[in-house]
Design a protein that fits this description.
Distance between the termini of chain A: 14 Å
Order of helices and strands of chain A: EHEHEHEHEH
Oligomer: heterodimer
Low-confidence stretches of chain B: 158-165
Largest interface: A-B, 30 and 35 residues
Order of helices and strands of chain B: EHEEHEHEEHHHEHEEHEHEEHE
Strand order of the largest sheet of chain A: 2-1-3-4-5
Distance between the termini of chain B: 31 Å
Helix content of chain A: 25-40%
Shape of chain B: globular
Radius of gyration of chain B: 18 Å
Number of strands of chain B: 13
Number of helices of chain B: 10
Number of helices of chain A: 5
Mean pLDDT of chain B: 85
Largest sheet of chain B: 13 strands, mixed
Chain lengths: ~130, ~325
């Protein structure tokens, strides 16, 4: 049986590795990209089974990339999970949960991520 | 690249007390964020690099001045260049060092995280350093240094959009990893050839499929000695590596070392992270052999017989969802 291929897109390379290790421990194959433009190009090169997408990234943020994916026939049905650091602890930012869900993301996870919570969300969408 | 930064680098006589902890406490009280910190204690000196945002230049100078009287200190405008992911592959660190050595570029400091190697580069040398790295590495998103430079625009503005005013009592981390059964090697010399020699040794390690779980470089200081610290799993090849370097340069081996590493959201935006860590270590009498704090991660080296206490202390300071022991 082929492995699920999950693309992780975040401009924090340490977080990418942390999430990648969590997913690889569950038997997934993981691709890595470090900003929204890289993520977009990676999706064109190889279609992922699911995308985990940071919100705040340079060049193209997660909201924009998610919206673009959901607007295109070829990528609309790829599940997208937004990673957000936005929460009660961060009072001043232009990024909010409501903005995230309006992009038609399939789910979101608030940072910091724990492995069980991540897998619960991911496995439910695969 | 993190640009428009400012570094304070100093050497401290190891008998002179815990200057690093005191300075980090002062930095935390002033609510300054540290962009990068490296510490290594070897021989008679502790070697420290602190990097802050350029806008905090005057603050860090004012804070550090009382602590640096009598110490060997230097300061400069700088940038931090990071490459990732390295996946503990020594060939990545080897090529990184050779990039600097090949152009005779000094490394003001080198920090390590689970994913990235970060070099402090003095302002004015950034372009030459970036070009040198493009000679050694293939960066898939960027064909040329100019592509890369253009892509950096806007990143700084993004980093400043989130203002960290965290109310949580204990900062959250993604997880804590540790590994034991390593040896720590410290090597320093005035000759630039040291960097190239260590780079070659790292390539040799890669050919033997030996992991490099930690590498760090301290400031040269007035003694103009280049200093590198690195950890290798305890095994025959690691001893050979030390011997290989030791044919030309003096290598100090600290056997039975253990590593810990963690990363968390907003480490770079939240003041006081390393202060909390150092304070807890000091109270418990932990001997810190090396420390690397880079953007959003912290990695450190302690004696093997203290690692379990270190894990417990970190769990006391931070919200740690999981603790993972990695292979040596």
């Amino acid at each position: 049986m082929s492995k699920n291929y999950i693309l992780v897109v975040d401009d924090d390379p340490d977080l990418v590795e942390t999430v990648a290790m969590m997913l690889e421990s569950k038997g997934c194959e993981v691709g890595r990209a470090y900003d929204g433009v890289e993520g977009e190009e990676s999706i064109k090169e190889r279609r992922p089974d699911l995308v985990i997408l940071d919100v705040m990234m340079p060049r193209k943020d997660g909201y924009v990339l998610c919206s673009e994916m959901k607007a295109q026939a070829g990528t609309r049905d790829i599940p997208v999970v937004l990673l957000t650091a936005v929460g009660e602890a961060v009072p001043t930012t232009k990024y909010t949960h409501s903005d995230g869900m309006s992009t038609e993301a399939d789910d979101y996870i608030a940072k910091p991520i724990d492995a069980d919570g991540l897998w619960q969300v991911v496995s439910g969408l695969l | 690249m993190l640009k428009n930064a400012f570094r304070v680098s100093f050497l401290q006589d190891r008998e002179a007390g815990d200057l690093l902890a005191e300075l980090c406490r002062a930095v935390a009280l002033e609510k300054l964020n540290l962009s990068l910190l490296t510490f290594c204690g070897a021989g008679s000196f502790s070697r420290v690099n602190l990097v802050v945002d350029g806008g905090d230049r005057e603050k860090i100078l004012d804070l550090s001045r009382p602590f640096l009287t009598g110490s060997r200190a230097e300061t400069s405008e700088c940038a931090v260049l990071s490459i990732f992911p390295h996946r503990n592959n020594p060939a990545v660190a080897g090529a990184f060092l050779e990039g600097f050595a090949g152009e005779d570029l000094p490394i003001a400091g080198l920090a390590h995280s689970n994913a990235a190697l970060s070099a402090i580069v003095d302002e004015g040398r950034v372009r030459k350093t970036a070009n040198a790295l493009f000679e050694r590495f293939l960066f898939s998103p960027y064909r040329t240094p100019m592509d890369w430079k253009l892509a950096q625009k806007g990143k700084e503005k993004l980093y400043r959009e989130v203002v960290a005013t965290y109310q949580e009592r204990r900062p959250k981390v993604y997880g804590l990893e540790w590994r034991d059964e390593n040896d720590l090697f410290n090597v320093s010399d005035r000759r630039q050839g040291l960097v190239e020699s260590v780079g070659r040794a790292f390539h040799d390690l890669a050919s033997r499929k030996i992991e490099l779980p930690f590498v760090l470089s301290g400031p040269c200081g007035e003694d103009a000695r280049i200093h590198l610290s690195f950890c290798l799993p305890r095994s025959g090849p690691s001893a050979e590596t030390a011997l290989r370097i030791g044919r030309e340069f003096k290598v100090e081996t600290v056997p039975s070392a253990a590593l810990f590493s963690m990363n968390g959201p907003h480490f770079s935006e939240r003041y006081g992270i390393v202060n909390d860590l150092l304070l807890s270590f000091r109270r418990a009498g932990v001997t810190l052999l090396a420390l690397s704090c880079a953007v959003s991660s912290i990695s450190g080296v302690v004696p093997s017989d203290q690692i379990r206490e270190v894990v417990r202390l970190i769990q006391g300071c931070f919200e740690v969802p999981a603790v993972v022991k990695r292979g040596g």
